[in-house]
Design goal:
Helix content is about 40%, strand content about 0%. The protein is an all-alpha fold and about 55 residues long. This is ATP synthase complex subunit 8.
Length: about 55
Amino acid sequence: MPQLNPNPWFFIMLTSWITFSLIIQPKLLTFVSANPLSSKPPATPNTTPWAWPWT
């Protein structure tokens, strides 16, 4: 069965992972996040129940 032969596919997978790990990933990690993390706890909104006219 030819799909069990790892000879051509292993090299392609290894090359793509090395390319991703060494070239693409450091470029992606240099971008600044649009929403930086905050140390403040999230504010809970003060909600009031809605008075439905039919209840």
